[in-house]
UniProtKB/TrEMBL annotation:
Keyword Transport: yes
An annotated Gene Ontology molecular function: ATP binding
Keyword tRNA processing: no
PANTHER family registered for this protein in UniProt: ALIPHATIC SULFONATES IMPORT ATP-BINDING PROTEIN SSUB (PTHR42788:SF13), TAURINE IMPORT ATP-BINDING PROTEIN-RELATED (PTHR42788)
Keyword annotations from UniProtKB, A to Z: ATP-binding, Nucleotide-binding, Transport
Protein name per UniProt: Unannotated protein
Gene3D superfamilies per UniProt: P-loop containing nucleotide triphosphate hydrolases
Domain (ABC transporter) ranges: 1-215
Pfam family name, one: ABC_tran
Length: 233
Protein backbone atom coordinates (compact mmCIF):
# COMPACT_ATOMS: atom_id res chain seq x y z
CA UNK A 1 0.00 0.00 0.00
CA UNK A 2 1.48 3.32 -1.11
CA UNK A 3 -0.53 6.47 -0.32
CA UNK A 4 -0.78 9.29 -2.90
CA UNK A 5 1.77 11.34 -0.93
CA UNK A 6 4.29 8.52 -1.39
CA UNK A 7 3.99 7.04 2.12
CA UNK A 8 4.76 3.36 1.80
CA UNK A 9 2.50 1.92 4.50
CA UNK A 10 2.34 -1.84 4.05
CA UNK A 11 4.54 -4.15 2.04
CA UNK A 12 4.51 -7.83 1.20
CA UNK A 13 1.93 -8.81 3.81
CA UNK A 14 0.20 -12.09 3.13
CA UNK A 15 -1.99 -14.24 5.35
CA UNK A 16 -5.34 -16.00 5.56
CA UNK A 17 -7.91 -15.89 8.32
CA UNK A 18 -10.39 -18.75 8.26
CA UNK A 19 -13.74 -19.01 10.06
CA UNK A 20 -13.04 -20.07 13.64
CA UNK A 21 -9.61 -18.44 13.55
CA UNK A 22 -8.73 -15.37 15.58
CA UNK A 23 -5.64 -13.67 14.20
CA UNK A 24 -4.11 -10.72 16.00
CA UNK A 25 -1.66 -8.29 14.46
CA UNK A 26 0.82 -6.49 16.70
CA UNK A 27 3.37 -3.97 15.51
CA UNK A 28 4.94 -0.59 16.26
CA UNK A 29 2.79 2.50 16.08
CA UNK A 30 2.48 3.75 12.48
CA UNK A 31 3.52 0.44 10.89
CA UNK A 32 0.32 0.13 8.88
CA UNK A 33 -2.00 -1.96 11.07
CA UNK A 34 -5.07 0.25 10.69
CA UNK A 35 -4.31 0.60 7.00
CA UNK A 36 -4.29 -3.19 6.69
CA UNK A 37 -7.70 -3.43 8.34
CA UNK A 38 -9.12 -0.62 6.25
CA UNK A 39 -7.91 -2.39 3.12
CA UNK A 40 -9.41 -5.68 4.31
CA UNK A 41 -12.79 -4.02 4.85
CA UNK A 42 -12.72 -2.10 1.58
CA UNK A 43 -12.59 1.33 3.28
CA UNK A 44 -9.22 1.84 1.61
CA UNK A 45 -8.17 0.59 -1.80
CA UNK A 46 -4.85 -1.24 -1.96
CA UNK A 47 -2.38 -0.08 -4.60
CA UNK A 48 -0.92 -3.55 -5.06
CA UNK A 49 -1.70 -7.15 -4.25
CA UNK A 50 -5.13 -8.57 -3.63
CA UNK A 51 -7.66 -9.11 -0.87
CA UNK A 52 -10.32 -11.78 -0.89
CA UNK A 53 -13.01 -11.32 1.71
CA UNK A 54 -16.76 -11.81 2.09
CA UNK A 55 -17.73 -8.13 2.00
CA UNK A 56 -21.38 -8.93 2.61
CA UNK A 57 -20.71 -9.91 6.18
CA UNK A 58 -18.14 -7.73 7.91
CA UNK A 59 -18.28 -6.43 11.47
CA UNK A 60 -15.91 -3.53 12.25
CA UNK A 61 -15.13 -2.28 15.74
CA UNK A 62 -12.96 0.80 16.28
CA UNK A 63 -11.07 2.08 19.33
CA UNK A 64 -13.73 4.73 19.73
CA UNK A 65 -17.16 3.22 20.38
CA UNK A 66 -18.73 5.71 17.90
CA UNK A 67 -22.17 5.55 19.53
CA UNK A 68 -24.85 8.06 18.63
CA UNK A 69 -25.34 10.20 21.77
CA UNK A 70 -29.04 10.82 21.12
CA UNK A 71 -29.87 7.11 20.92
CA UNK A 72 -30.31 4.70 23.82
CA UNK A 73 -28.25 1.51 24.12
CA UNK A 74 -31.12 -0.46 22.55
CA UNK A 75 -31.40 1.98 19.63
CA UNK A 76 -27.64 2.15 19.11
CA UNK A 77 -27.45 -1.63 18.99
CA UNK A 78 -30.26 -1.69 16.44
CA UNK A 79 -28.56 0.89 14.21
CA UNK A 80 -26.69 -1.33 11.73
CA UNK A 81 -29.69 -3.61 11.39
CA UNK A 82 -31.89 -0.59 10.77
CA UNK A 83 -29.52 0.71 8.09
CA UNK A 84 -29.64 -2.72 6.45
CA UNK A 85 -33.42 -2.50 6.32
CA UNK A 86 -34.14 -5.29 8.79
CA UNK A 87 -37.75 -5.11 9.98
CA UNK A 88 -38.48 -3.65 13.39
CA UNK A 89 -39.52 -6.83 15.22
CA UNK A 90 -36.53 -8.83 13.95
CA UNK A 91 -33.98 -6.14 14.75
CA UNK A 92 -35.48 -5.68 18.22
CA UNK A 93 -35.14 -9.38 18.86
CA UNK A 94 -31.60 -9.50 17.45
CA UNK A 95 -30.59 -6.46 19.49
CA UNK A 96 -31.94 -8.04 22.67
CA UNK A 97 -29.91 -11.20 22.00
CA UNK A 98 -26.76 -9.16 21.33
CA UNK A 99 -27.30 -7.07 24.45
CA UNK A 100 -27.52 -10.26 26.47
CA UNK A 101 -24.35 -11.65 24.86
CA UNK A 102 -22.35 -8.56 25.86
CA UNK A 103 -23.81 -8.41 29.39
CA UNK A 104 -25.70 -5.14 29.02
CA UNK A 105 -29.10 -6.42 30.14
CA UNK A 106 -30.74 -3.77 32.32
CA UNK A 107 -28.99 -0.88 30.54
CA UNK A 108 -31.05 -0.87 27.33
CA UNK A 109 -32.68 2.48 28.08
CA UNK A 110 -29.48 4.34 28.98
CA UNK A 111 -27.76 6.92 26.79
CA UNK A 112 -24.03 6.72 25.92
CA UNK A 113 -23.09 9.50 28.35
CA UNK A 114 -24.48 7.36 31.19
CA UNK A 115 -22.15 4.45 30.33
CA UNK A 116 -18.59 3.64 31.44
CA UNK A 117 -15.88 3.17 28.79
CA UNK A 118 -16.20 -0.62 29.02
CA UNK A 119 -19.98 -0.49 28.65
CA UNK A 120 -19.71 1.77 25.60
CA UNK A 121 -17.40 -0.76 23.99
CA UNK A 122 -19.81 -3.61 24.82
CA UNK A 123 -22.55 -1.59 23.16
CA UNK A 124 -20.38 -1.08 20.09
CA UNK A 125 -19.67 -4.84 19.95
CA UNK A 126 -23.37 -5.62 20.26
CA UNK A 127 -24.19 -3.25 17.39
CA UNK A 128 -21.89 -5.27 15.10
CA UNK A 129 -23.05 -8.62 16.48
CA UNK A 130 -26.64 -7.97 15.44
CA UNK A 131 -25.72 -8.70 11.83
CA UNK A 132 -23.90 -11.95 12.78
CA UNK A 133 -20.78 -11.05 10.78
CA UNK A 134 -18.74 -13.88 9.34
CA UNK A 135 -15.66 -11.66 9.46
CA UNK A 136 -15.01 -9.47 12.48
CA UNK A 137 -12.37 -6.71 12.27
CA UNK A 138 -11.20 -5.00 15.46
CA UNK A 139 -8.92 -1.96 15.49
CA UNK A 140 -7.56 -1.65 19.05
CA UNK A 141 -11.07 -1.73 20.51
CA UNK A 142 -9.92 -1.94 24.13
CA UNK A 143 -6.84 0.30 23.84
CA UNK A 144 -8.37 3.16 25.80
CA UNK A 145 -9.63 1.02 28.70
CA UNK A 146 -7.95 0.30 32.03
CA UNK A 147 -6.30 -3.10 32.38
CA UNK A 148 -8.96 -4.72 34.57
CA UNK A 149 -11.78 -3.70 32.23
CA UNK A 150 -9.73 -4.78 29.25
CA UNK A 151 -9.11 -8.25 30.71
CA UNK A 152 -12.80 -8.66 31.50
CA UNK A 153 -13.73 -7.65 27.96
CA UNK A 154 -11.12 -10.05 26.60
CA UNK A 155 -12.79 -12.89 28.52
CA UNK A 156 -16.16 -11.80 27.16
CA UNK A 157 -14.91 -11.43 23.60
CA UNK A 158 -13.63 -15.01 23.69
CA UNK A 159 -17.04 -16.15 24.85
CA UNK A 160 -18.56 -14.32 21.86
CA UNK A 161 -16.00 -15.85 19.54
CA UNK A 162 -16.86 -19.36 20.79
CA UNK A 163 -20.54 -18.64 20.35
CA UNK A 164 -20.32 -17.07 16.87
CA UNK A 165 -17.17 -18.63 15.39
CA UNK A 166 -16.50 -15.75 13.01
CA UNK A 167 -13.12 -15.17 11.38
CA UNK A 168 -11.48 -12.58 13.65
CA UNK A 169 -8.78 -10.08 12.71
CA UNK A 170 -7.74 -8.04 15.72
CA UNK A 171 -5.24 -5.21 16.16
CA UNK A 172 -3.68 -4.38 19.49
CA UNK A 173 -0.50 -3.03 21.01
CA UNK A 174 -0.93 -5.25 24.08
CA UNK A 175 1.10 -8.45 23.70
CA UNK A 176 -0.81 -10.16 26.54
CA UNK A 177 -4.11 -9.35 24.92
CA UNK A 178 -2.85 -10.68 21.58
CA UNK A 179 -1.77 -14.01 23.03
CA UNK A 180 -4.83 -14.42 25.24
CA UNK A 181 -7.34 -13.88 22.44
CA UNK A 182 -5.75 -15.44 19.43
CA UNK A 183 -5.26 -18.65 17.60
CA UNK A 184 -2.37 -16.87 15.82
CA UNK A 185 -0.33 -13.74 16.46
CA UNK A 186 1.24 -11.96 13.49
CA UNK A 187 4.05 -9.49 14.23
CA UNK A 188 4.70 -6.58 11.90
CA UNK A 189 7.87 -4.53 11.39
CA UNK A 190 8.09 -0.75 11.42
CA UNK A 191 6.78 1.02 8.30
CA UNK A 192 6.49 -0.18 5.64
CA UNK A 193 4.83 -2.93 7.67
CA UNK A 194 6.01 -6.43 6.83
CA UNK A 195 5.29 -9.67 8.63
CA UNK A 196 8.33 -10.60 10.68
CA UNK A 197 6.83 -13.42 12.77
CA UNK A 198 3.71 -15.56 12.87
CA UNK A 199 3.01 -17.63 16.02
CA UNK A 200 0.40 -20.27 16.66
CA UNK A 201 -0.96 -19.93 20.19
CA UNK A 202 -0.91 -23.35 21.85
CA UNK A 203 -4.15 -23.05 23.85
CA UNK A 204 -7.57 -24.51 23.11
CA UNK A 205 -10.89 -22.82 23.78
CA UNK A 206 -12.52 -22.04 26.12
CA UNK A 207 -9.56 -20.32 27.77
CA UNK A 208 -9.45 -19.67 31.47
CA UNK A 209 -8.61 -16.21 32.77
CA UNK A 210 -5.47 -17.47 34.55
CA UNK A 211 -3.66 -19.00 31.55
CA UNK A 212 -2.14 -15.50 31.51
CA UNK A 213 0.03 -16.55 34.44
CA UNK A 214 1.33 -19.81 32.97
CA UNK A 215 5.03 -20.10 31.99
CA UNK A 216 4.20 -21.07 28.39
CA UNK A 217 2.08 -17.94 28.05
CA UNK A 218 4.84 -15.72 29.41
CA UNK A 219 7.39 -17.36 27.15
CA UNK A 220 5.36 -16.58 24.02
CA UNK A 221 4.80 -12.98 25.21
CA UNK A 222 8.57 -12.70 25.68
CA UNK A 223 9.28 -13.88 22.13
CA UNK A 224 6.82 -11.38 20.67
CA UNK A 225 8.26 -8.62 22.82
CA UNK A 226 11.74 -9.40 21.47
CA UNK A 227 10.46 -9.37 17.87
CA UNK A 228 8.94 -5.96 18.51
CA UNK A 229 12.21 -4.64 19.91
CA UNK A 230 13.91 -5.71 16.68
CA UNK A 231 11.02 -4.24 14.68
CA UNK A 232 11.68 -0.80 16.14
CA UNK A 233 15.39 -0.77 15.41
N1 LIG B 1 -4.37 8.63 3.96
C1 LIG B 1 -3.06 8.61 4.24
N2 LIG B 1 -2.16 9.31 3.51
C2 LIG B 1 -0.84 9.27 3.77
N3 LIG B 1 -0.32 8.54 4.79
C3 LIG B 1 -1.15 7.84 5.56
C4 LIG B 1 -2.57 7.83 5.34
N4 LIG B 1 -3.13 7.02 6.27
C5 LIG B 1 -2.13 6.56 7.04
N5 LIG B 1 -0.94 7.04 6.61
C6 LIG B 1 0.39 6.74 7.16
O1 LIG B 1 0.62 5.35 6.97
C7 LIG B 1 1.32 4.82 8.08
C8 LIG B 1 0.52 3.69 8.67
O2 LIG B 1 -0.62 4.23 9.34
P1 LIG B 1 -1.60 3.33 10.20
O3 LIG B 1 -2.06 2.20 9.37
O4 LIG B 1 -2.64 4.21 10.78
O5 LIG B 1 -0.61 2.79 11.36
P2 LIG B 1 -0.93 1.97 12.70
O6 LIG B 1 -2.39 1.68 12.74
O7 LIG B 1 -0.06 0.75 12.62
O8 LIG B 1 -0.48 2.84 13.83
C9 LIG B 1 1.56 5.97 9.03
O9 LIG B 1 2.85 6.47 8.78
C10 LIG B 1 0.50 6.98 8.64
O10 LIG B 1 0.91 8.28 8.94
MG1 LIG C 1 -3.91 2.23 14.07
Amino acid sequence: MVFPDGTHAVDDVSFDVHPGEFVTVVGPSGCGKSTLLRIASGLEENTGGSVTIDKSSIGYVFQDATLLPWRTVQKNVELNAELQGMDKATRRQKAMEAIELVNLVGHEGKYPKQLSGGMKMRCSLARSLVLNPKVFLFDEPFGALDEITRERLNDELLRLFLHERFAGLFITHSIQEAVFLSTRVVVMSARPGRIIADYRVPYDFPRQHDIRYEPEFAELCGKISNDLKDAHS
